[in-house]
């Protein structure tokens, strides 16, 4: 049986780890967790999100702006996140309403689609 989600993976261009850490660890405030030694040579890094993780891998030749695939982060103050991201020059995109939730989307500096969602 499937018991839950262990992790999700997004990708960034090869060699962009420093810029990705600045965004994901700095702007979003997600703590980095150590990758197993057997995977460290592959580039990228892992982030802790509650009791799960987001793996930031590296790959080139991907049009991240054309995908609907995304990570949705559950937040407690959607308005504050909107202001924080706009202060970083990141445009909020309005998504289709979902009953019981308020949300918005944006693209990270690499084109990955990201959603911030708050239960009402």
From TrEMBL:
Q: Which residues form the VOC domain?
A: 4-119
PANTHER family, per database record: FAMILY PROTEIN, PUTATIVE (AFU_ORTHOLOGUE AFUA_3G15060)-RELATED
- The coiled-coil segments of this chain are none
Q: From what superkingdom does this record's organism come?
A: Bacteria
- Protein name, per record: VOC family protein
Pfam families in the record:
Glyoxalase
InterPro entries the UniProt entry points to:
Glyas_Bleomycin-R_OHBP_Dase, Glyas_Fos-R_dOase_dom, VOC_core
């Amino acid at each position: 049986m499937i018991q839950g989600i262990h992790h999700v993976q997004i990708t960034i261009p090869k060699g962009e780890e420093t810029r990705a850490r600045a965004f994901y660890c700095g702007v979003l405030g997600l703590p980095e967790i150590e990758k197993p030694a057997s995977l460290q040579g592959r580039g990228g890094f892992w982030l802790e999100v509650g009791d799960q993780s987001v793996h930031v891998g590296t790959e080139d030749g991907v049009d991240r702006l054309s995908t609907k695939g995304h990570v949705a982060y559950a937040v407690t103050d959607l308005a504050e996140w909107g202001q924080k991201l706009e202060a970083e020059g990141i445009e909020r995109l309005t998504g289709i309403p979902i009953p019981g939730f308020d949300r918005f989307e944006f693209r990270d500096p690499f084109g990955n689609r990201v959603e911030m969602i708050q239960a009402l």
